[in-house]
Amino acid sequence: MTSNQSRTLVILVMGSTGAGKSTFINAVSGKTNATVGHDMQSCTVHIQEVQITDPEITGIVAIPNPSLLIIDTPGFDDTKKDDVVILTRIAKWLKKSHGIHSLVGVIYLHDISLDRFTGTAKRNLDMFQKLCGKKAFKNVAIGMTKGSRVNDSGALQRRTESLKRTQWNHMIAEGVTVFSIPEKDSREDSRKVVKHLLSNYSQSTVLQIQDELIKKKLLVPNTEAGLELSATIKRLIDAHKQYTQFSTASNLEEAKREIERLSKQLKELKIPLSKRIMRFFGF
């Protein structure tokens, strides 16, 4: 075992709210470890660590007595916490775990039953890519969930091919592997994704945001993920401002509240001058 390897291995699970992250983790573990939400209501507010002890899974890695943690993360469209809070929590966990645990890879879940690639899906994917960085894509797997909800098998196939050709094409070119995970009886298919990442493991994966926070000593707002979130919030504010020009009186107050909420998030992403000066001088 090399110096950058730990007996505690980690696989991160990410994706939009409702994509089935908690269901996936429970299928892998064979237990109800992660709380499962319904529809688009999130149950994962905090980052949850689920330990996998089954030797059928952990035995794949050539490390004596390895321990595997699968990490359940909230989506960036979480119904209970703002995106800035979610990004900060994920970033802090990744920074803290670096050097303690060995990151095997990341699983990104996408609800294939959605007939359109929505703005929410795009925001989550954009943030995911900025967190990981291209260098880590070879240790990333995409899991398509809830395909059984699409009654037309031809439509499901076309939807899958469209995503591979348009949204995921550059990721696939960099080494990302795509899997289909059924909604029912998904234990073996879910484990197949985990085993795939474990079988390719040789040393700890370093995500882009970990490199930015630890090696480059950037603050979260200055990371690629932080800058992406800031740009996204600005676009949303502009869109809501445009909307208010044509809103009825009943919708106007709601739009104003949303602008206020987004503006607060944007303010939280701005680094105070004192922090910028301290970071410049290495404090």
UniProtKB/TrEMBL annotation:
- What subcellular locations does the record give? Membrane; Plastid, Chloroplast outer membrane
Cited InterPro entries: G_AIG1 (IPR006703), GIMA/IAN/Toc (IPR045058), P-loop_NTPase (IPR027417)
Q: How does it sit in the membrane?
A: Single-pass membrane protein
What sequence ranges are listed for the domain AIG1-type G?
11-157
The record, for Pfam families, names: AIG1
The answer to whether keyword Phosphoprotein applies is: no
**What is the required cofactor set for this protein?**
Mg(2+)
For whether the record's keyword set contains rRNA-binding, the answer is no
Q: Which UniProt keywords apply?
A: Chloroplast, GTP-binding, Hydrolase, Magnesium, Membrane, Metal-binding, Nucleotide-binding, Plastid, Plastid outer membrane, Protein transport, Transmembrane, Transmembrane helix, Transport
Which Gene Ontology terms describe the biological processes this protein takes part in? protein transport
GO cellular component, alphabetical, reads: membrane
Question: Which Gene Ontology molecular-function terms are recorded?
Answer: GTP binding; hydrolase activity; metal ion binding
What's the domain of life for this entry?
Eukaryota
Q: What is the protein named?
A: AIG1-type G domain-containing protein
State the species of origin.
Psilocybe cubensis
